[in-house]
Amino acid sequence: MRFTPRNVRSRLTLWYVLVLASLLALYAGIASLFLFLSLREDFDHNLLQDLEIVEGMLAKEPNGLLSLHSSHLDAGEPRIGHFIEVRSPEGSLLYRSASLEGQALGGPAGRGEGERDPTPTTIRLPNGTRARLASSVYYIEDQRVVVRVAYDEERLWRELGEFGQVLLLGFPIAVLLAGVGGYALARKALAPIDSMAVQAKKISADKLGDRLSIENSEDELGKLGTVFNAMLGRLQAAFDQLRRFTADASHELRTPLTAIRSVGEVALQDQRSPAEYRDVIGSMLEEVDRLTRLAESLLALSRADAGHVPLQREDISLVHLAKEASSVVEVLAEEKRQQIDVQGEAYLLVSVDRLILRQAVVNLLDNAIKYSPAGSRILVRVQRGGEKQVFLDVIDQGPGIPSEHQAHVFDRFYRVDKARTREWGGAGLGLSISRWAVEALGGDITLRSKDGQGSTFRVSLPVANDSPANPLKGGPQ
Ligand code: ADP
After folding, report:
1. What sections of 58-153 are H helices per DSSP?
2. Which residue's CA is the closest to the ligand 1 atom numbered 13?
3. Burial 421-430 (b: 16+ CB within 10 A, else e)
4. How many angstroms separate the CA atoms of 360 and 328, rounded?
5. Is the minimum distance from the CB of 394 to ligand 1 under 6 angstroms?
6. Does ligand 1 have an atom closer than 6 angstroms to the CB of 430?
7. What is the pLDDT of residue 477?
């Protein structure tokens, strides 16, 4: 089973301790190796020196064997713990130190043993003791002998063991301290996250104005908090917009419904003639019409908000589209004896969804008709706007839009003169639908107007790639 601590703090501490323990173990291993090698180097150095000393101390006995004479000593007694054995090249034993307790030191002499520069090697005595051995060939009174000197190596291993014990003893203490320190460090580093979590828990839909407090906006946690706060800001704006939209929509729906109800109630109070009833039904249907238009606009906007409107782009002539849109509203213009003129070059193509762009232009024309005086002229002008743009201007001779309202007319449910425009059937959604449509097609819509001097709504759209570069003067309109 895999052990994974639940919180980040413990996980960080665990990793920290694991990495530190591995590093410590590696360090201890390398330190021990170096200690051992350096101790053994001293050991070998002394061993080689002692080999020379022992040679000088050997003397021949009358019985042909050798003995060790301390009177020949020129560098003191050989060190304690040394083993000495001297053999003839044929292998017969000439001398063996008492410290060997009768054990052979390295077995019979090998061929050529001691002829080269002596190099210490590690051997085991028959009783298991590890010994460091060096041997060399010498002549004692003309007799060729192989002298072997060895040190008990166990002492070296004991020193290494003691060093290891000290390290082992310190190891858990170091790891424990690292764990405690690491945990405290992780706790301190992660404390802002805890406090953010506590604050975030308290933020609910009706408290979207609250923000996380940020200690240092430059560090990683501060940046996270800033991003989170920005997200809250966007959520709050979306929530507010939704709330306003719902409130405005229900308000708009209530007005025609109240009108239908009161017209109906009044009609029911007295007996009326069929002509009067027809009138009542007529005005009720007018309100129903208004409701239907409102419902359609709301539906269009909610679809647009949800991003559910698939765009079917095709290259079309903007002038042709403007003519189509003006024919849709022609009847309304005729009622007010207004004239709609469409001007521009038909070769200017845009790649758009025909129905969506037509709806946007129809809304602009509908407004121009609604708000301009009877008998006035409405001009729709299509022209190139530089290399990559095409403009469609809807210019009217209406009352214009006061500058303080211009920034808001594209907002939902925004009407400059609430009382009057409602009479004409507007709910303040037409321009917001136009703006959405134009922006969805990659363009934008702007307004230029002076109070009392008419309005110009300009739709800019990217020119289609297939649009001819050279104007075909006098081409189809
Ligand atoms: P509505 O459905 O009320 O016309 P819009 O979103 O189309 O809503 O327009 C918002 C407001 O902008 C209108 O209520 C009106 O006051 C003003 N407006 C729009 N177009 C014109 C125009 N061509 N001339 C004067 N005022 C306009």
Report:
1. none
2. 415
3. bbeeebbbbb
4. 12
5. no
6. yes
7. 38
